[in-house]
From TrEMBL:
Residues 325-349 form the Aminoacyl-tRNA synthetase class Ia domain. It comes from Persephonella sp. TUMA-5n. It is an enzyme of class 6 (ligase). The keyword Transmembrane does not apply. This is leucine--tRNA ligase. Coiled coil: none annotated. The gene is leuS.
Amino acid sequence: VHPAKWTYENIDYMKKELKRLGFSYDWDREVTTCSPEYYKWNQWIFLKMLEKGIAYRKSAIVNWCPHDMTVLANEQVIEGRCWRCDTPVVQKEIPSWFLRITDYAEVLLDDLEELKGKWPEAVLTMQRNWIGKSIGATIRFPIEDSTSVLEVFTTRPDTIFGVTFMALAPEHPLAIELAKGTDYEEEVEAFVNKYLSMSTRDRNIIDEKEGVFTGRYAINPLTNEKVPIWIANYILWGYGTGAIMAVPAHDERDHEFAKKYGIPIKPVIKPVEGEWDYEKEAFTEEGILINSNGFDGLTSEEAKEKITQELEKKGIGEKTINFRLRDWNISRQRYWGTPIPVIYCDDCGIVPVP
């Protein structure tokens, strides 16, 4: 059934139901949002956003049904299969259109203050967590025997001297590339493909941490120590850079992963008072720096500032504000619906339809 036929038949059916219920609507003012007479205004608004740089195009990883040749929402993926045809869903990278809502993250956060006393505090907290402002540092780790670097975002630059491995999301562009030519190539490829076949919702549910070594190493830019690069299922491509500097002594997830795979645990923060068994569990609070070269004895707060300054001085990092909020992917790759009002020209690129 063509979606246009299905949609208009359902509109007629619902109108009959509403009339039989006796609702006195003015049907002369009826609006059908899928008709060109209406959606031309959607297209006009889109072109205005494109003109202002709010709408833009980039590649995105989506749930893809190979049989229906279409994008699926998380809710349309049932146990890894398409809800219509039961075909296994894959993760596919395709060109998509986005709205740059992250440009308004700070404004959205600030305006929540105006709702205090008007909205429930629980709802305001939920909104703050959804926007998810984080202050930290971007750090670049060179990859051994390569011109590439691994860029990470961390809210704890004070723990950089405790890095004992790097971890990439399976969707990271370098995941398979790094393992090429190593003894781990086949294992890495199988691991990555396993997670690429999952829906984005299933990828967010991690029952057990799993990973695989790539056979490659990064260089800690402040210590020059080699640290192994792993692919790990608890790293998500949609947040930060899709890569982390892992500090098992001071992060619970990294600690669990390190214990499972026999990766060293190096403490660099000690409690202000008392002792801590770092082998037993991670110390995730702020404290006093140890095993951190010239930064020993500083508080975590002091070290965050001074280490970030050192990174900036060496040109290997900088202070960064990150948000959990992501730009809105509005593409669904449908063959029926409101068309994106642009022409794709080999010579001119993206050309707005006048």
